[in-house]
Amino acid sequence: MSPQLSGVLTALASPFAPDGQIDEKTLRRLVDRSVDGGVDGVVACGSTGEFAAMNGAERRQVVETVVDQVAGRVPVIAQTGAVSTKEAVALSRHARAAGASVLMVVAPYYEPLTMDETLRYLRTVADAVDVPIMLYNLPDATGVPLPPETVGQLAREVENIQYIKDTSGDMAQAGQLIHRYGDVISTFIGWDSLLLQAISEGAAGVMAGTANVIPAELVSIHRALRDGELERARAEWARIYPLMDTMMSAPFIPAVKAALEAAGFPIGPPREPLLGLDAATTARISALYEELRRRSA
User: Fold this and answer.
1) Closest to 150 measured CA to CA, from 201, 192, 116
2) What is the spatial distance between Cα 176 and Cα 208, in angstroms, rounded to a whole number?
3) Is 25 exposed, middle or buried (0-12, 13-18, 19+ CB in 10 A)?
4) Candidates 121, 163, 165, 181; catalytic one
5) What is the mean pLDDT of each run of 10 residues along the chain (297 residues)?
6) Catalytic one among 121, 136, 163, 181?
7) 165 included as an active-site residue
8) 136 noted as active-site residue
């Protein structure tokens, strides 16, 4: 029986070695950085992890490495969505066998599907495994938004659809998911800068790429909100917000990697065609990280 997910989940970045291969050793250290920071779960092969730039063997390698390194300390969520239903089913069965606690499934992200095609895909993948499924609503990439009423219907019809990661950036939609359909599905917000609003609204948690960089800080804010310490949460949020805002305003994957570099934890550049940040943005992220460290000392 998988534990009920809640809290801060790190959308793990993917370290690449100079030859472009997955850097397993650094990935293991990155997992420990989040787990030691107190997060409630880690996500393998999410968007921050550049899954779309990996082949199937690499995706399997990342999931196996993360599950092995976590060693049961926190749940592992594996993103197993793919362009074809056949590949998504194969990746899902592999991740389940490897020991992932929950599978997150994004809709195909090249050819925009009809809603009927999207629902058939999601049902087929969910039916192929016996572990909890997290829907991944990412309309900017898939071209197909999952409206709250559709999500609620799916969760009622398919027993193992238990979670949704909403990366629409729309708190009105998130509010509907939380308040109208909270009896059948738990909502995680995938927009890092909405953490304060989302947890205050009643979201089960957040899935954050910035948790690679500042895991303990995000966990502390979540715990303050959970415990009803709103003023403490606001004060801590105000301290991290300049860095959070700058990272969210930049190309996100390179921003996470630049911030990790500033933290003394280099994990290599993004995989092309993504490029690193311009020098000015990199310098600003580095300066803001150092300021946060000074203020937290």
Assistant:
1) 116
2) 21
3) exposed
4) 165
5) 83 96 98 98 98 97 98 98 97 98 95 93 97 96 94 97 96 96 97 96 97 98 97 97 97 98 96 96 98 87
6) 136
7) yes
8) yes
Nearest residue to 270 via CA among 66, 69, 52: 52
Residues in contact with 77: Cβ distance below 8 Å, sequence separation at least 6, in sequence order:
5, 9, 41, 42, 43, 44, 46, 100, 101, 102, 103, 104, 134, 207
Tokens encoding 284? 């600003």
Return the structure tokens found at 5.
């997910």
d(CA 60, CA 79): 11
**pTM for this predicted structure:** 0.96
Measured distance CA(268)–CA(20) in Å, rounded: 9
Phi-psi group of 260: left, alpha or beta (phi > 0 → left; psi -120 to 50 → alpha; rest → beta):
alpha
Q: CA 209 to CA 259: how far, in whole Å?
A: 11
Q: Kindly compute the dihedral angle of the four CA atoms of residues 53, 58, 63, 67, in this order, to the nearest 10 degrees.
A: -130
Q: How far apart are CA 290 and CA 56, in angstroms?
A: 38
